[in-house]
Amino acid sequence: MKWAYSWIRSPGYVSISTVSMNLSVFNAASPQASDLLNLWNLCMWICGSVLTVVTVSIAFIIVRYRQHDDAEPKQTTGNVKLEVAWTVIPIFLVAILFVLSIRTARAVDRPVTREADIIVTGHQWWWEIVYPSVDAITANEIHVPIGRDMLVAIESADVIHDFWVPRLGRKIDAIPGMRNFVWISADKPGEYLGTCAEFCGAQHARMGFRVVAQDAAAYTAWLSGQASAAVAPTDAAARRGRSRFSELSCATCHNIRGENQQKPYAPDLTHVASRVMLAAERFANTSENLKAWLRQPDVLKPGCNMPNLKLADADVTDIAAYLETLR
Amino acid sequence: MTRYNTAKLSMAVFLASEFVFFAFLIAAYVYFYGAVVQGPRASNSLNPPRTLVFTMCLVASSATMWMAERRLRNADRREFRIWLGLTIFLGAVFVFGQATEYAGLIAKTITPARNLFGATFFTLTGFHGLHVLAGLISLSALLGLTFRKNFGAKEISGAGAIAMYWHFVDAVWVVIFCLVYASVWI
Amino acid sequence: MSGVPFPSTALDSDLPAHARSTWLEWISTVDHKRIGILYLLTTLFFFGVGGIEALLMRIQLAWPENTFLGPDTYNQIFTMHGTTMVFLVVVPLLLGLANYLTPLMIGASDMALPRLNAFSFWVFLFGGILLYFSFASGHAPSAGWFSYAPLSETGYSTRSGLDYWALALLGIGVGTIATAINLIVTIVNLRTEGLTFRRLPLFVWMVFVNSFLIIFALPALNATLAMLLVDRQLNAHFFTQLGGGSPILWQHYFWSFGHPEVYIMVLPAFGIISEVIPVFSRKPIFGYRFIAASTVGIALLSVGVWAHHMFAVGLGHAWEYAFGASSLLIAIPTGVKVFNWIATMWGGSIRFTTSMLFAIAFLFTFTIGGLSGVTFATVPIDWQVTDSYYVVAHMHYVLFGGTLFAVMAGVYYWFPKMSGRMLSESCGRIHFWLMFIGFHLTFFIQHILGLDGMPRRVYTYADHPGWAAMNMISTIGAFVIGISMLVFLANIVMSLRRGAFAGDNPWNAWTLEWATTSPPPEHNFDSVPPVRGLRPLWDLAHPGEQTP
Description:
The complex is a heterotrimer of chains A (327), B (186) and C (548). Chain A is an alpha+beta fold and 327 residues long. Chain A contains 8 helices and 12 strands. A 5-stranded mixed sheet of chain A has the order 3-2-1-5-8. In chain A, strands 4-10-9-6-7 form a 5-stranded mixed sheet. In chain A, strands 11-12 form a two-stranded antiparallel sheet. In chain A, α2 (31-64) packs antiparallel against α3. Chain B is mainly α and 186 residues long. Chain B has a single domain (6-32, 47-185), classed as Cytochrome c oxidase, subunit III, four-helix bundle (Four Helix Bundle (Hemerythrin (Met), subunit A)). Helices cover 82% and strands 0% of the residues of chain B. Chain B is built from 6 helices and no strands. Chain B has helices spanning 6-33, 42-45, 48-73, 77-107, 116-145, 153-185. Chain B starts with 5 loop residues before the first helix and ends with a helix. Chain C is an all-alpha fold and 548 residues long. Chain C has one domain (33-541): Cytochrome C Oxidase, Chain A (Up-down Bundle). Chains A and C meet through α2, α3 and β9 of A and α3, α9, α10, α11 and α12 of C.
């Protein structure tokens, strides 16, 4: 019933019963997001009051002053006292908003005091995630420990993107040649969806990511897992897949730690099987979806940079089998 | 009832818009000035003394234009033509100087593509040069009009407007010269 | 005299002789009235094009994971929709109205520079054709209507669509500047005797201030477009970080134009409302001096708020506080106007003509749009809602629910003057209610979608709970708007043929354009009434009374 509570607290917001909670700014899950929501609610009270005054006045006028006869009404031209009132009161109202906006900005957007915990680089159309402390590289899925403030650096490898996790806090642009910072934290364990929020070309709509908040132990385990190199597979199909992976030029773009070392042209696949989703939230990470992606990335994400290599069915099965071992 | 000279008022408003246009190009030049620390830039690629000569021609053309306007106010059409012709000649000399400067820079592969100095320098001086060319065309058209029989009040106020334009273009060049050339010469 | 229209059996031959004309006269005209109508017809056409683009987008977004339009096609369409609506509809529409009305409202016989006026129209039309030619070249621009770098550079936008975009806008920009010069000189120079600036009709006042905004903003755009073309065609690096350039400079430069542009798109609409509301309330405008002064305030402030489009860029708190403050401040003079318009109606004798219905709808809808703007000016809120469907809602509330509703009020008000015939009021009511309901259905729900996390400029979306229903509602609303436009078109066509005779002053209004025939003769006035106050015709009808 959280949505109903936010409806009550924010007048002027007409609630629809099926409002989504996945990406909603009303479903705040961090101190920053709550601060932002509180400011929003206050702003709604102020704006709502003004709108109410305007609407009620108009409704009153429509009823009370509709034409009854041809007589000319009193030809008033103005009233200086009223002018002063409706100039000064709004100044007062926006002054409140301004002061509170400074307070919230300082709480939500705190200064950078140390090295970044996570470096996020936007690419057309996926997110490169690096944990510099352990040299772990992954894609499209960020893990954070609950209750701890993580400093995230935001960069871009090509055009301007934007990093936005509505339930956790503000959005910030990823700009080539510039490093921005955002503080991320989550109150409770869970998965918080994010999306690119600056138009960046063909697949801007499909450049999602998620922030997975875990308790400290689970987070540490995940992190050391991500930092480790890939284990060579034992299964026959997976071993065939591993050879085909290099032979078919997949390795020219995709890194697998322990196998190759390339610039990040494409998502790092060292632990791809550990992720919840594939292709930047395009679909769930299942065997079927993975095979479909290998067969036709250009159909599932038209315009994306992964070419359709027109793989034979045997290759698709084997490479998928290999990738599924990369936990 | 017309309160102000329509041609001159229109030109003044137009020049206000041109002021904004050049201000943005100049701001880009200034903004990127410090970013170019190696390779061709103002201090090692330009020839301020040479450009000063051509600048003097352009400034002189403003003076001759002013002289022409005075002649016109005294209804001395023949003298007006002479000073106007001189203005056009001096303006053409300036354009020649610009063109040869460009040729020299391009021969040294200093182009808009080369670096931000090339980009900002050519864009700023290039648009100025285009404005000078447009001015020369207008002045020549005006000169042509003086040979017609009915050269009256309307044409005279038009001449005043074109003269304003010409002075503006020259003033913009003085600013550009000081900013781009003189600042690295002194 | 309450302006009762003549019987609807009026024939074309009953109209003044000068109302009939040939095609060639229209194409070669330098008459501000004909040029104004050419603008209105052309922008109506482009509104249809932009509207179809909108409907295509709404079909694609009607349900999740839809495959009606592929991403590349969708991205071209949303770019063209925005560019069309801003540059080929709203601005030329307002300037077209200004063109038609300004000389009439100041008692002049034409604009100061009639041939420049014609030039402005044709260069605007050429720019529009050039923009749409990009489709024929294989690929329309697809980087959004504000073409952020480096996406708009050749590295990421390899086709020529963006070059057409830049060239078309350069041409249109030149035409717009020329019109602004013309309007300024006309208003300064050609006011009839007695018409001081303090007595200027508010529509003319707003057009006057607006023209100065154009003189500042459009050259800024031209400089910015020129630099983009130098980047794209001469391989420079103004806006690409790889060559030492700055993508953020593009944003600063573009929004230095772009923010004044949105006020350019609304000030004349404020002027229309300021004319319509007093007439249908039968009272003078309340607080004339304050409305006029607040207009100047808005114009001055509007050149100092541009970076509020960049609050998510990471410019730093100093920038964000400064521009947050200036953006909050600009709400004040806008509010002053809304309160004055309400006060004008207060104590009046309201006639609910279609024009007045649109004016009242404007007050309500624009206020919502303005208030959502205040939420953006509260910087941390912007950090959540910018670049989401919330901002799509805001911009349509102020530009459609604001400007376009005001334009509709103006069209129903001045159509009789332009054509000599009344638009059908019953048809007008149907148009109004369909448009009003359709508009709110389409756009109100987009506030919620944005708050729910739906980003803007997406060709599709995942099946998050509620998004499908909300998007479907929005799509249905868009089609209701489309139907309302068909009703409007039918009204125009029908009324041009068989509408009731308007006469000189069907609304019993008070400004000078009503002191001549409908439509006016080519020289506008046989004789201009004396001007001793804000409402010359009211003064004539109330001899001996002090003009309020």
